[in-house]
Amino acid sequence: MMCDNLIIKIINVIVFGITAYYTFAASANGMMVAMYWMAGGMLFDAIVDLIWHFIPNKKDCTK
Prior knowledge:
Elements: H1 6-25, H2 28-54
């Protein structure tokens, strides 16, 4: 993941919270919704990480 982007981390917590809700509190159809949320959250995270990689003058995570 990116260095310390708090907004993205909060969005990920919300998305995975919705995933957990649909996984444990819903019926069989809810499991499909949870899988869609999980796939969407992972895709969103990957796209943001890719964009973050190409932004010039970004903070270095290794320091």
